[in-house]
Amino acid sequence: MNRKNRNFNITNNTTTMSNKITKGYNITNDPNFLDKQNGITPELSKYLDRYYQMAIDGKKSSLPKILSAIEKYPNIAKLKNFLSVLYSQLGDMQKSYEINHRIIAEHPDYLFGKINLAHEFYFKQEYNKMAEILGETFDLHALYPHRDTFHINEVVSFQKCAVLYFAAIGKIEDAEIRYELMNELAPDSQDTESVFKQLTLARMKVGMEKLQKENEERVKVDVNKQAKTSKNIPPEFTHPELEILYQKGLYIEEALINKILALPRKSLIRDLETVLNDSIERFSYFSEKFENEGWPEETTNFVLHAFFLLGELESEESIDCVFQVLSQSDEYFDVFLGDFLTSALWEPIYKIAHNQLYKCMEFMQLPGIHTYSKTIFPDIAEQIVHHQPQRREEIIEWYRQVINFYLSGKAEDNVIDSDVIGLLICNLLNTGIDELTLEIEQLYKKKIVSTGICGTYADVKKDFGKYDKDYHQKEILQISERYKNITETWAGYADKNEVKPQAFDNYYKPPTLPLTSEPKIGRNDPCPCGSGKKYKMCCLNK
Length: 542
Known about the structure:
Structural class: mainly alpha
């Protein structure tokens, strides 16, 4: 096969959806194809590189030269395209737009003229006019039913417009399909790179709009306010050894942990509960230090230390003290627990509470409780199913009673929390418990589920039975292993040299998308026919 005439049908290389997009035509990378398509003679072709470079350089002195060429070759749309680009480079967008409209009027079949006009409407946010120019389905074959072959550059430029259009009107899936096709055809193209940034912005916009809508529909709890406290004197402990907990971050020596755990159990538990109560009784004192000094890890982790130690002691008698801490305010959790509330606290509380699920259910029914204080207990119920499978029926009944409580609750009771319910449904999916689908459906009908967390009811039904126990079962570690796991694997501890991400505004600044001209192949570029030679040594002179 002659290399310069090589055609390929994209249906051999793309996904099913891409096949539908390109159905009915072939794609060629023959460098002479567009010249033949647009009536450019070999004589004129020799001069086009010079006019193209003039347009890109954007010098005012080039205007009369390109205008003269257009006068000499009035039937060549490509020269007018160069003129449009030159005006764009000069910053005269009005003249550039006028040329685009002239091209369409004088050369109605010239694809790049339509693409440039579609870009104009894109910048003016007149997206419906883009569809009028290129077709509502953005089907290249439907736009040109008399053609069975298109150049790869025509296809990529056309699909770029399709991505911009679908992204602008919020049809992200359609935009992604068109982007995938561009990425398959021309992954290193500037068009492919620039349109990806626009697609990313569109994804974010749709996601934020969806989140805003969910926030408006979400049923929230008014979390308890933190009581002001005047105490600033530290407590006295039966075991003074516990004072060291106020001075240690999570890089705490195993020997010190073992020394504390070796103290008499009853009095040690009492002292650890005093530590937790101290965080509440002296909250204003610690909060002021937090505001003035930032978050000093070594002096605020004493709450986490107390939880870990009580968990290691399996101190079931401390359950009420645990509930007292979990009933505090947003401000309290910001000072003392932060992300540990959602990621680390479940384990020590599991060791304290797994045999006291009835009390945990009563806590789930209290008003004014922080979302992630409550979700600890459905998390624990999930882990009981994984670690103690013989208790599965008990856990099903526990979940059922919790759900029925929310089904019977009212918004004014200040107990219904859409996020708690959404996360609870995730717990059920993670255990494979599908006996409660009817109750779950009722939660959706009552509109008290955060669908952004667990999806729609249809999503949930589809996902039941697909859980992976090995993935969802969490390790229950000894206390020294837990400290080691946090300091060696958690970001912020293990990643001391973490690279800071770019600022949001810089990274997501929309790129400039200039009007396009027909892509040019440089004389010294690799020939697109695939021969491995430079273009000037291969297809340029054929």
